[in-house]
Amino acid sequence: MTTAAAYHRDNPSALVEAAYARILSERMNGLPILNPLLSVRAIGFARWHEEWRGIVLTPWCMSLLLLPAEAGNSRPAQPGNQRCYREFPAGTFSFLASSEEEVGPFLSCALISPMAGFACQNDAVLTAEAALIGLSQPPAGEAPRAAEESAVCGRRRFLGIRR
Question: Domains in the chain, please, with CATH?
Fold first, then answer.
């Protein structure tokens, strides 16, 4: 059993992949929601202020993750139904707190689930890379909104979903 650090000085991509590969084999194995054409991959993890920001791609979901990168930024795992919000140039996004033994505490924002629409791993990786680019782009000509409304609308706009 690995003891996860409270924060990560180095890029946590390998740890994220290990955690989600374990989740796939222990909790998700055999579920019909899985896209058998996809595998677990950590994409684009880079420092964003005091956190590591990147996307985890799995056969069941694509999620934006935030992991603490500095000692003062480590956060205890909160119950999964408590939301917190983070501002990005693209808008405000809603995250759920979680913790896995390989990575410790982290925040997760589901971008796509299920993953049935992807015909291959490369298409899913390209989508994740485009999502990271889009996250850094401010929306064109929109007035600021309340955090909760902005988080829902921001994610839909970010993913190209219309109401």
Answer: 13-124+133-159 (3.30.1460.40)
